[in-house]
Structures are given as structure tokens and as C-alpha cells.
Design a protein that fits this description.
Helix content: 25-40%
Shape: globular
Order of helices and strands: EHEHHEHEHEEEEHHEHEHEHEE
Number of strands: 13
Distance between the termini: 20 Å
Structural class: alpha/beta
Radius of gyration: 19 Å
Largest sheet: 9 strands, mixed
Length: about 350
Amino acid sequence: MTGPVMVMVTIDTEEDDWGSYRLRGASVENIRLLPELLPLWERFGVRPTYFVNYPPLASREASRVLHSLCEGGPCEMGAHCHPWNTPPLADGQDAAESMMCRLSDDENHAKLAKLGILFQDLFERRPRAFRAGRWGFGPSVGRPLHRLGYEADFSVSPFMDWTDIGGPDYTHVPQHPYWFHPEAPLRPAENGPLVEIPTSIGFLRGRPGASATLRADLELSFLARLKIVGILDTLGILARRWLSPENTGGADMIRLAKTLTRSGLQVLDMTFHSPSLLPGGTPFVRSEADKRRLLERIEGFLEFCREQGFQFCTASEVARAVRDGEIACQERVSGGVYQNGSEKYVPSRQALP
């Protein structure tokens, strides 16, 4: 378990309509821009993973681009699901119902099955890696994934609490990969049948578990009105960062990677959304200048990884390394309580790293 750090580059490959929950007619113009990245991937030896959702798969033009990406260099296609625009469709949805964890097993199974049919028709194989849209993972997603033959999930975003928009609370979910049972996907289980590879989020200083607890407590206290969390974040005291060029500067991405790997983490996930390649497609990239900054951050981080001797891998290659025992897993979090049927696992404070 002392091999090189494995680095995934994962791209949520989806429609342009950021923040829209319309059922039909999504634009997928951004997909045609994905080949722009191929020279960068080739230069650094990156094998990206595209987590593809329903609208690009259902578009003749976009699906052609996706198929060409497979021929343009080593990569992986995984599955991604926005439940509001993945058939079977349901009228009258609100923003909370855009989280898969709010839907039933049967509803999610039907959507994942439909997504899988289009996926197999285009790529001539079944998807094995999955990421839920809006990070909305939970038991009612895990159970259908297991039944449909998926091997690994990539939906967990450590230290993030999405409950205010109807999603899961990942505040105390491990940063390390772990095995899990579909009935309790946020709780590590040594004998679980599925692998979870959390995305890379962390704090730039301090103990991550304690920092997450303190930040969450402050966000719920009267001090939130004084914007104390934002002040402490700016000062670097409770600086929580994503390994993403969309919302983290290049220097902080490298600093986060160093912090995570020094703590023993063997997997890094640099992630972004395909519509960020289309100026105006996401809140992160509103202009051509923003796009240049995004690409510069990606290039700078890839250069850092190469200098460090890190190994670029696809999502399934990382999951395979976990299954083969080449990557250390979080085996358990002692002292916690899993609220069965919900999407919240709360370890005791004594168990926090």
C-alpha cells in the first residue's frame, strides 16, 4: 500500500442548462468542446473519466463526439444521472427532487436502467462507475446500482452538507476510499460489495475532522450572520477547498493535494463540469478569460502531478486498485450512528480524525 499516488481527472459530462430543472429540450452544445482537451491529456498522459448523463447520450451530435473521444486516446466513460431529465420523467418536480437520494428505489432503478441502455448502445459495454448528479447519493441509489451491476460509486463529497437543498450530509464521511453496503452507503463496511471513491475535498490546515465539525457548528450558530466562516476561510484557518479548477485557484489546488497526500491519502480526484468549457455554461466560467484561467489551473496541476511522479488513472482503475488491496481503505469509523434510511452518518467526536 505504498505505491504512487493515483490521480483521476473526472468530468461530469452533461447539458449546458446549469440550474435548470426542465424535463426536456436540454442544450448540449458544450460537448463539442471536449476534444479541445485531448492535446492536454496526451501531453501529460492523463486518462480522463467522463461521467456522462442522459442528454448527451440521447443527442446524435453529442453522442458522436463522445464516441470519438474513446478513439482519441485512453479514457473511461462512466454514468452520471440528473433525475429531472432522465426518463421516466415526472412532471411537477422541485429542486429538492433533483436529488436522486430523494427518489424511491424503483424510480432510480428505472432511470438508471434507461441510462444504461443508451450507454451500452453507444459504447458497447455496460457502465461500471457512477456519479450521482448534484452529489445526491443515498440508499435508494446504492441499492439499484448494486442490482444493475455497478462496481464503484464516485458521488461522495467529504465535509459537504447538502441537506439545505434536499441532499445528503457528508460532513463526517471519510476522505479515503471505502467498501460499503447499498443499504448504508455512507458508512464504511469491510465486507461491503461496492467501493466508494470520494472526491477530493479537504482543509488546508488543521485536523480535517475537527475542522469540519467546527465549521459546521459555526455555520449553524448566530455567528453565521457575521460571516465569520467566510472570514476564517479567507484567513486560511477553516479553509475548505475542492480539488477543482472551477472553484479553487491553482496554488491552493497544489497545496490541497500536498496536504491530502501527506495525510496518507493515495487517491486524488481533480473534477470539473463539461459545461465549464462553454463560457456562460456554469457560474464558474462566464467569459473567455475565465475559461483561460480554468485551463491554466488544470495545466498547472497536471504539471505538479507529473513532477511528483503521481500516476494518472481512470475511475475504474482506481476502483480495481482498491479491490486488489493496492490502496488503503477506511475500514470503519467507530463510535458512530448511521441513521438507517437517511443519508447521514454521524460518528462520535472522539472518532473524528
